[in-house]
Design brief:
The protein has seven helices and seven strands. The chain has about 190 residues and is an alpha/beta fold.
Amino acid sequence: MASQQQLSAIKGAKVLMVGAGGIGCELLKTLALSGFQDIHIIDMDTIEVSNLNRQFLFRQSHVGHSKAKVARDAVLKFRPHMSITPHHANVKDPEFNVEFFKQFNVVLNGLDNLDARRHVNRLCLAADVPLVESGTTGFLGQFYIFYNNKMCQPHGIISAKNAFTDFGFFLLNGHWWELLFFAFRYEA
């Protein structure tokens, strides 16, 4: 269970989430249910039929619409008092520069494009903002925390064989909080 200090940190945090696809849908839902109040989402994609089997915030009627905007609308249905700002844009657009990144306490990356992931990593380094990097390779999922040009603990790999058990335990038992508090502890 989170302490009062941790709950205050969650409520006061400003989070940037890059990617609103398979990982991003799960991240956004978990952030919302964990009490985060101020989230920005950047994603340039629109919803396709092939997304519907794994991106649970989206429905058939959403095909062709912005992932960032639809994800925001879906979460606001069960957490209406949150501030979720969608950006239907490419994270490599000039408006998403170092100054933009500096306003966030932590950045969560759920991208499937290696070049964009590297770009976000460079911006987080320049802005001195912790980055929680996550992704999939085949049937493996992984997450890492980067801060101050170092990969930090905790980090891990979740296998497809144990994905439901490992990932479910990881999320349902508050381990996302631990991960984010680890990133927050570097904040002044």
